UniProtKB/TrEMBL annotation:
GO terms for molecular function: calmodulin binding; metal ion binding; nitric-oxide synthase activity. This is nitric-oxide synthase (NADPH). Transmembrane segments: none annotated. The lineage of its organism: Eukaryota, Metazoa, Ecdysozoa, Arthropoda, Hexapoda. The keyword Metal-binding applies. Its cofactor is heme b; FMN; FAD. Residues 3-120 form the Sulfite reductase [NADPH] flavoprotein alpha-component-like FAD-binding domain. Keywords: Calmodulin-binding, FAD, Flavoprotein, FMN, Heme, Iron, Metal-binding, NADP, Oxidoreductase.
Amino acid sequence: GTTLLLELDDLAGMEISYKPGDHLGVFACNKTELVDGILARIEQTMDFDTPVELQTQKQSHTPNGIIKTWVPHDRFTPNSLRMLLTRFLDITTPPSPNLLRYFSSIATNPKEKAQLNLLAT
């Protein structure tokens, strides 16, 4: 990983209680331009500022076969899509080949499908 140096000015004026060895979490936001660009590509009529719940699909193996259920994500509380893209989701790391193949499988535009397949290889 990469180590970044973050210098904070005038901690005494902020009334923060800390001791040597304490840790500080810094959560950077994604750029507004990137978030807005993603939202502009979504072809759904929805309010991007209305809370949504992220869910993951869980699979259970039973004697009758595999049962798939959707459950709330255990790390993300309901939030707007704009807030999730801005503060919680990594939108700057290139997608994995598996994700590109999945996007290709659901793409409806033949040109985009071909481009996604090419990127996945």
